[in-house]
Design brief:
Blueprint lengths: L1 E5 L6 H14 L4 E5 L5 H11 L8 H25 L3 E5 L2 H11 L4 H12 L6 E6 L2 H7 L11 H17 L5 E5 L4 H12 L7
Parallel strand pairs: 1-3, 1-4, 2-3, 4-5
Helix pairs in contact: 1-8, 2-3, 3-5, 4-5, 4-7
Length: 203
């Protein structure tokens, strides 16, 4: 399976992705946990540039192309080969992040960004996507340390990003699973397991 986690910064998706990886490993399932941007040497270099507060003057289109470059590299060299071997891949962010952040919050347009996502991934779509929907003020309060370039955008930016995710959810895609992220870590994870268990019922 190809499983992705989505949500605004501070929603807790990385924690949930790690918990799901451990749950699958405990069931002897071959699984890879990856993050975007990142997961490859090129992707990690791009990640550093994207999140560096020193690059505060980065234009929205430059930002978009950097995310797409990291995604294409990860898809071609890690995700697609792993799936072809019958392994499960869990990815912390994927195509929906770009639609929400760059397409909606940055105003570049959902249709254009979706078309570019399709090209960058050769049309690869997750089997299931968990959208951890969290109130922006609550999510931002969970962040610690010095904010990265995107976290520094603040609550108003994250509100626009959340609106992007809600617009994706409104499309009614069967793979998109919206989960209330304002609850405890264990309550959120219980919902995820209820959704994912039928896919691994034979293990």
């Amino acid at each position: 399976m190809f499983i992705t986690f989505e949500g605004i910064d501070g929603c807790g998706k990385s924690t949930q992705a790690g918990m799901l990886r451990d749950w699958l490993i405990h069931r002897s399932i071959q699984v890879h946990l990856l993050r975007e941007p990142g997961g490859t040497s090129l992707g990690e270099t791009i990640r550093s540039a994207l999140l560096d507060p020193a690059n505060g003057d980065m234009s929205p289109r430059s930002e978009l192309f950097l995310y797409l470059a990291a995604r294409a590299q990860l898809t071609d060299t890690v995700i697609a080969p792993s799936l072809s071997r019958g392994e499960t891949v869990i990815l912390d962010r994927f195509i929906d992040s770009t639609v929400a952040y760059q397409g909606v919050a940055r105003g570049l347009g959902i249709d254009d960004v979706s078309a570019m996502n399709h090209f960058a991934t050769n049309g690869l779509i997750p089997d299931i996507t968990f959208f951890i929907d969290t109130d922006p003020a609550t999510a931002m309060s969970r962040l610690s340390g010095s904010p990265d370039r995107l976290e520094a955008e603040g609550v108003s930016f994250m509100e626009r990003v959340r609106e992007g995710y809600l617009r994706i959810d409104e499309q009614g895609q069967r793979r998109f699973c919206r989960i209330d992220g304002n609850r405890s870590v264990n309550a959120i994870f219980a919902d995820i397991i209820r959704s994912i268990s039928p896919h691994f019922s034979s293990t």
